[in-house]
Design brief:
The longest helix is centred in the N-terminal third of the chain and has 11 residues, at 7-17. The protein is an alpha+beta fold and 123 residues long. The protein contains 2 helices and 8 strands. Strands 1-4-5-7-8-2 form a 6-stranded mixed beta sheet, covered by helices on one side. The protein has one domain. It is globular.
Length: 123
């Protein structure tokens, strides 16, 4: 088989494994934990799969700085990209999910007053 004839099958294989990106709603050089306040109750609900993004990767926030780089899934309190069967969300809040769909899920809440963002114990 000639090297040129390997190109088409290789391109087909690469196309089959390509992941489609969602909408990037935020790009920042700040550490990811500064996006909002960590909510322990929502983080626990997320780790139990009862509060989560409806579609992983549909809405994402990118943190590209040298400290705290991450890509977080995003959902809105109004229900946009949010699965919330227990109605824990508040309409005026934005939810940022780190390690969504895992038992170590962490939920940071943007738009919540009365608290400062804190650095997590582990990154």
């Amino acid at each position: 088989m000639r090297p040129r004839s390997l190109i088409l099958p290789l391109l087909c294989l690469l196309g089959a494994t390509r992941v489609e990106a969602g909408t990037i709603v935020l790009t920042s050089s700040a550490p990811y934990w500064q996006v909002g306040v960590r909510d322990n109750e929502l983080s626990r609900a997320c780790s139990l799969d009862t509060f989560a993004p409806l579609r992983l990767g549909a809405l994402v926030a990118r943190f590209t700085g040298p400290e705290g780089p991450a890509v977080l899934d995003v959902a809105k309190g109004n229900g946009n990209n949010l699965r919330d069967p227990k109605h824990l969300a508040k309409r005026n809040e934005d939810y940022f999910f780190r390690n969504a769909a895992t038992t170590s899920c962490e939920v940071l809440v943007g738009g919540r007053g009365g608290g400062a963002a804190v650095r997590p114990a582990s990154r």
